[in-house]
Design a protein that fits this description.
With 430 residues, the protein is mainly alpha-helical. The protein contains 23 helices and no strands.
Length: 430
């Protein structure tokens, strides 16, 4: 599908220093000096890795053309090692699409995306999509250009006037997806997932990659009842309990300090923080280059990557977590830990090191635990259908993630609703 040119798109130089993807280098958690010191070292790493990838492709008979490679070598121990050390940024989108299996969807459903874009009427969630379009990556110049000289910010009318090509693409992708997958429709965080993909690939490929993310890697996570999110958070918490018992002693309790028993249907309140890690694929939690390195592994190795990285984040912040004494402080600490992890290589290396790493956590183990939790949901639904009254613990299973306002734009319910005003003030919206 051809891009629709934006009207009056400004071509002004950026006011603040930007990275290679258009994001502001400086954040609340990383100073410009820290970023540039890291970047100077990382640029050398990227150059070395690019040469190695180029040689790898040539040895595989896949000499990159002017537009870069479209095919990549079959999966192997060597390729996995290369992916973990980082895919060259300019080849990243093509590699993600190839290893995630995107081509089979293009082949199986030719023209489907164009058909969805051109069909009517608009899906029910179109107003929600429109609301979030201009909230997507406000720190990226491709999504939100700097205001013209003499202005501090753009009005909503001016945002429309200066709407960029990529925002128009994002609208089409999200609208087509909401029509194609009505059981998900639109859920906040899909705009960031699709938005990041669009920085690396055309919109049709972005559409299919969003489908793969929401069905293969994060099944059920973005559906209306968010059951998949609850499933994955239970799996993550049980993994923390088994692998990081001293951290579990700090995060595995309720707001009153009592331990949450994972053999019941409750989840620790800290999952309010960690659920956003998974729903957004760590966007907004980890620095952007670190997020991209995680996605390199995710699309090559599967959803076990998200669990491995989450455990590594906890391990990295172990001293900070163990120093917390007030249960209410744990939320802010857990939210803050990943935001300063700018050294992407160090995080990936810590994740996969043989001793004290998490590379042993297999996809089979993750899928088995996921199924165990899904079975608990199925049993609960059967009880409800038969008219059996649920206990408080059973009700928590249904209420933990239902109708979360942070993701569906609806009224909070169950466990998340009961945390009180004090807790909600601590949470920083990602």
């Amino acid at each position: 599908m051809e891009d629709i040119p934006a009207k009056n798109e400004p071509s002004l130089p950026p006011i603040e220093p930007r990275d290679r993807y258009g994001f502001k280098k400086q954040t609340q958690y990383i100073s410009l000096a820290e970023y540039e010191e890291w970047e100077s070292r990382y640029s050398e790493t990227l150059d070395r890795r690019r040469k190695k990838w180029d040689q790898l492709l040539r040895e595989s008979g896949l000499t990159p053309g002017e537009g870069g490679p479209v095919r990549f070598p079959p999966k192997s121990a060597k390729i996995k090692r290369y992916v973990r050390k980082g895919i060259p940024p300019e080849w990243r989108g093509a590699a993600w699409f190839w290893y995630a299996g995107g081509q089979k969807y293009l082949n199986k459903y030719p023209g489907k995306y164009d058909e969805l874009v051109n069909q009517g009427p608009l899906p029910p969630d179109s107003e929600l999509i429109e609301r979030d379009l201009h909230r997507t990556f406000p720190d990226n110049i491709k999504y939100k250009p700097d205001p013209p000289p003499g202005m501090t910010r753009l009005s909503k009318l001016q945002e429309k006037q200066y709407e960029t090509v990529i925002v128009q693409q994002l609208r089409r992708v999200l609208t087509a997806f909401a029509s194609y997958v009505p059981k998900i429709g639109y859920c906040q965080s899909l705009n960031f997932l699709a938005g990041l993909l669009l920085l690396f690939m055309p919109e049709e490929k972005t559409f299919w990659m969003l489908y793969i993310l929401t069905h293969t890697h994060l099944p059920g996570t973005h559906e209306l009842n968010l059951e998949g999110s609850s499933v994955d958070q239970w799996v993550l918490m049980s993994s923390v309990r088994d692998s990081l018992p001293q951290i579990w002693a700090k995060i595995g309790g309720g707001l009153d300090g009592s331990e949450v028993e994972l053999n019941s249907t409750k989840l620790p309140p800290v999952t309010l923080c960690t659920s956003s890690w998974f729903m957004s694929g760590f966007i907004g939690s980890l620095p952007i280059e670190t997020t991209l390195r995680v996605w390199d592994c995710l699309f090559y190795e599967g959803s076990k990557t998200l669990f491995r990285i989450a455990l590594t984040v906890f391990k990295t912040g172990e001293s900070q977590i163990r120093s917390v004494h007030d249960p209410m402080e744990i939320f802010q600490v857990v939210q803050t830990i990943p935001r300063s992890l700018i050294d992407a290589g160090a995080l990936i290396e810590a994740c996969y090191r043989r001793r004290n790493g998490f590379g042993h956590l297999s996809q089979e183990a993750i899928d088995e635990k996921r199924q165990e939790r899904r079975n608990a949901f199925a049993e609960e639904r059967a009880l409800i259908a038969s008219g059996v009254r649920l206990s408080k613990d059973d009700g928590a299973l249904r209420g933990n993630f239902d109708n979360s306002s942070s993701s569906r734009g609806q009224t909070n319910g169950g466990h998340h609703h009961d945390l009180g005003r004090r807790f909600r003030k601590i949470l920083v919206k990602t």
